[in-house]
Structures are given as structure tokens and as C-alpha cells.
Amino acid sequence: MPEGDTIWLTAHRMHDALAGRLLTRSDLRVPKLATVDLTGRAVVGVVPRGKHLLTRIEGGLTLHSHLRMDGAWQLYASDERWRGGPGHQIRAILGTAAHTAVGYRLPVLDLLRTVDEPAVVGHLGPDLLGPDWDFEEAVRRVMADPDRPLGEALLDQRNLAGIGNVYKCELAFLARVTPWLPVGELSAGVPERLVTTARRLLEENKGRFDRRTIPGNRPDRKLYVYGRAQQPCYRCGVPIRWDGGGTGPADRVSYWCPGCQSGPAPA
């Protein structure tokens, strides 16, 4: 599941492979961009912004993409076989003489002027992995609505950009509270520790796709609760519970340990 650390690593790999090089192939397979041809233009750079990816193209253009739940950009050498999925899932192809970036299952793909990037990312809060990181502002935004459940506050990209459902569940576990606890009921100092931990975890994971929140290198122990329904908690042994969420666009599955985490939870 793409989160801020995955986008950061994807952007930096694409930047290293494409930046400063001319596009020899351009194929944008969405109806509104079907006639666009970027061939002959140089890639200026690839920049991550929260969960958004901005590929800047010579001539003041930016190809904006968002991976959401299962989108992906795969990078291949010019003579390498593509393995990211069947051809009908490809939404974008950007190729140079040496490398080709292929975007699979991209739910969001727009071409805009680079100066208009704030129209698609200007609403985001402080980026956990970005140059605009502001710890105090991030804490203020998370705590702005005391009645809001912690999980919702963490997932809201207007509060701090880069946290997805995996980190939401893991951060709640590390704070020893459930994702449904109103942020106004967090003990003194917990909001600050949560934001600090969020940034630390994304920093530690941004250089690898194999995400982990548990210290060490055990291959069988990477995450505390996410994806571990009915398995024993590593701390207390109580089976991890999960809830499939509701029907709204912000509702996502949540995992938690009823032995370690206090606060409200679904029946």
C-alpha cells in the first residue's frame, strides 16, 4: 500500500533515472491526455509531495499522479521486460534512451502547468518527508478538532502529509490507544510523541520498499498490528482484532490490540 515513504523512494528512483534526459517515448493512456505527446522534452525532475508525485517536464509542465490504494510506478532498463501487470493496467509510459517509467493502475493522472502545482497539492499539511516540515504546525492541525478520532486525524493529509492506513494503525498501537479515541482525550505529551514517531518511522523506511515499524531485522516481525488479524500480539499475546470500517471514502480497515490499546472500539 503506497504511503509517504513509498512515494518518496519512487520519486527519487525516477528522478535519478529520468532527470536531465530527453523523453524518447511518451504515452499517456487516459482519455483527457490521449493526444498529449511529451516526446523530445527533457525531464526536469521528479518530486514527492505527501502521497502525490510530481514529474516536472521541460516547458513548464508537470505530470501529476497519485497512487491511492494500488497504483504503482515501475522503472525498467531499456531492454528489460515489464513485469508490473497486464498491458490494460498501464496508464502512463515515460521513456528515455536508457530507462522507462511505467505507471500501472494510476487512479489520478493530470498534466498541468508547473506554476499551478498548488492547485493539486496546496491543501496538504506539513510533509513528513518534505523540506516544508513544521513539527509545531503538524501537532496543531492534528489537535485542531478535539472530538475527531485519532485515526481520522492521522489520515487527513491536510493535517500532515504522508501517513496512510498502515502507519495509522501502527502509530495508534505505539501510543497504546485505539484509532477511535478522540484526539482531545490523548494524555499530555502523546500528540507530540505521535508526530515525532510518525516522522521517525517514515524517515527510517523511505530508503526501502520493505516497510517495518518493529526494530531489528527479523523477517517474520515487521509490523505490530497491521495485517495481523487474529494473530497474537507481540507484547501481550492477546489476538489482534480488526474492523472493516464503514462505507465512506475515508473508512479503511483498522487493526488494534485490545490488550495493549485503551479507548473506544467497534463492537
Automatic annotation (TrEMBL):
UniProt GO MF annotations: class I DNA-(apurinic or apyrimidinic site) endonuclease activity; damaged DNA binding; oxidized pyrimidine nucleobase lesion DNA N-glycosylase activity; zinc ion binding
Source species of the chain: Streptomyces thermolilacinus SPC6
CDD domains documented for this protein: AcNei2_N
Entry keyword Membrane: no
One Pfam family hit: H2TH
Keyword Ligase in record: no
Keywords of the record: DNA damage, DNA repair, DNA-binding, Glycosidase, Hydrolase, Lyase, Metal-binding, Multifunctional enzyme, Zinc, Zinc-finger
Full protein name: DNA-(apurinic or apyrimidinic site) lyase
Family, as annotated: Belongs to the FPG family.
Annotated catalysed reactions: 2'-deoxyribonucleotide-(2'-deoxyribose 5'-phosphate)-2'-deoxyribonucleotide-DNA = a 3'-end 2'-deoxyribonucleotide-(2,3-dehydro-2,3-deoxyribose 5'-phosphate)-DNA + a 5'-end 5'-phospho-2'-deoxyribonucleoside-DNA + H(+)
One Gene Ontology term from the biological process aspect of the record: base-excision repair
FPG-type domain boundaries: 224-262
Formamidopyrimidine-DNA glycosylase catalytic domain residues: 2-130
E.C. numbers: 4.2.99.18
SUPFAM superfamilies, alphabetized: Glucocorticoid receptor-like (DNA-binding domain) (SSF57716), N-terminal domain of MutM-like DNA repair proteins (SSF81624), S13-like H2TH domain (SSF46946)
